[in-house]
Amino acid sequence: MFKIWNKYIHPLSSADYELIKKAILSRKYETTVETTERTISDRLGPAFGTIDLLFEPVDEMGVVFLFAKHHREIGFPFIVKLRSRFPDAIAIDMKGEKKLIELEFRSSGFNHDPKGCDYIVCWVDDLDEELKEKMPQLMKEGLRGCQVEAIKNLERSFSLSRPRALIQMASGAGKTFAAVTFAYRLVKFPGANASYS
Fold first, then answer.
1. Which is the most buried residue in 5, 107, 148, 160, by most CB within 10 A?
2. Domain spans, the chain
């Protein structure tokens, strides 16, 4: 039981939850705009079952809602602004510093320069799988083990939208060749994001 604005709020019972779900599925609350675009029931995610959100987000607006609701829990005590352009949010972190945050439903939907924001908050982290699908397996012939490891780590770093990386190896171990091989793979294979190279 929670008390908000002198009103007692309690978690939904399973009966209440089913009643609300049935009403949504019956399309009772749809407007003509929603009917002409896509219906609410067509856009429902799996059951989430919290007091704040009955169904998991299915688009960026759901992520914006969850961020606005739970920003304190993830280290941002204050939101300065939510907006409809990149980056989506300006917030203050625990150190009192202003941070720019991009909110995406899928991490693969991030198509901005990562230098323009400090954090990317996503509901579905599918970027690593997307990069794996677009990048063929690394041919290890002619590469040393440390070079293979460096290239794989660079690809992983980029797939997580962390384009700044450091290859640290002994002199003569092949840092330049590893970096050139990585850059070639980004440029050569279709669909791989070469904008960070």
1. 107
2. 1-55, 57-125, 128-188
